[in-house]
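BUG: 3D viewer hangs when loading the predicted structure for this chain

Environment: internal workstation, default settings.
Expected: structure renders.
Actual: progress bar stalls at 90%.

Input used:
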Amino acid sequence: MIRKLSPVDEAGKKALAELGNRLRTLRIMRSDTMAQMAQRLQCSLSTYTALEKGVATTQLGLLVNALSILGALDSLSAVAPVPVESLVNNDAMRKRVRKMNPTIPTDKEIDF
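Structure tokens produced before the viewer hung:
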């Protein structure tokens, strides 16, 4: 079965590659092989290899488990940090997000 890659822009690809490199570095620092990590994560070696390469098809849960095994789960908070001002100024924070009424874009609004 061929899996379709998730659409990721160039910045996203770079971020995934950097994250994969960090996982690789942490694994090597622990003297673990890729096969050992795959076994601990209960995934195939090719899936773990894709995770270290930053391939967009790997599961987010697998990433969380890998960070946990490597003792770096707390680093996940750095992935999408929330500005401190947002936490302090809770009154200004939106309580919920509502769906917008979809409108059909005009020809000038379509950019492709």
